Amino acid sequence: MRAKEINCQYLIVGQGIAGTTLAYSLLKRKQNIYVIDDGYQHSSSKVAVGMFNPITGKRVVKTWKADVLFPFLHHFYQELENFLGVKFFFPKTIYRPFESIEQQNHVLGQAAEQAFADFIEIDNKDEKYKGFVFNEFGGAELKQGGYLAVSTMLEAFQDFLKKEQLFLQTNFDENNLTVQHQDSIIWENAQTSVKINAKKVIFCRGIQDGESRFWKALPFRAVKGEVLTGHFQEQLAFEEIINRSGWVIPFGNNTYKAGSTYDWDDTSLEITEKAKNEILDKVNKLIKFPFACTHQEAGLRPTTTDRRPLIGLHPLYANVGLFNGLGTKGVMLAPYFADAFCDYLLEGKTLEAEVSVLRFLDTSLQN
Question: Is domain 4-46+151-219+306-364 annotated with CATH 3.90.79.10?
């Protein structure tokens, strides 16, 4: 049987957070795309809770590039919601109980600075939370945070792609990829009788791309994360995300997600009792009422040794690209850097050096 032939400008491999945001960004710029995804249920995107928080860490500092990332992501996801006609973006206040008087003084001092004015609420709201949160030292409300219902977004965008005949669910066998010259690739799949001609292929498969012949020199690191779903034995009705070391996100009807863990050694996809107990311990130190777990999930996050994204075109193959390494902050990083990647691909603008694949590949190719 003769293969069905598909012509496009960009073949995107992987439809997680990275692939979805890049595909939409390219479509907005009137580019012809086609997306392949293997439907892998344990990908980090499919099990991601999707929290976005501008203030992080024990030192309570702004997350990297917060001043540009957060206005951009709010606009991007609301626009994508309107485009798809599906609700998946939930801005929420994040309440951060302080761990000590020293931390209280530090954060309140920051809140008075103009640089933090968009992210930290100065007004004291501790009384609102003391009935269910351990907040002996008070706390602060953080602005511009929330969560993205990642699976809902991915499913809605995939439905759109299928409707437009821009999607194929199959395993992407790299052996079937032919890199023609600087502006052409061909990928053929005998099982599905599909032949795809594209100007460029962009890999967006998360940790799987570390096994690619094009990208295996890059310092991918898999970080396992586990998350619990459950309810509190006392009927609670708070709307805010509660976050200190661990976090609790309300999903309505006394359903909450709690997390998370960071395991650099165990890269299996098995849920563990150790992780469950670690998360429960965090929740018990955060919320005054017992939490009952009803479901547990595990996924592998694609991060890097310097904890910065991996974006760009291969130095030896100008028609092979990568949009990856978004790690634990993919929901925050993806919209802004998908747009920056489009600027690079379509307008020739320079990628920031600290996210470019060339910070690693230039050196590795010389060895």
Answer: no
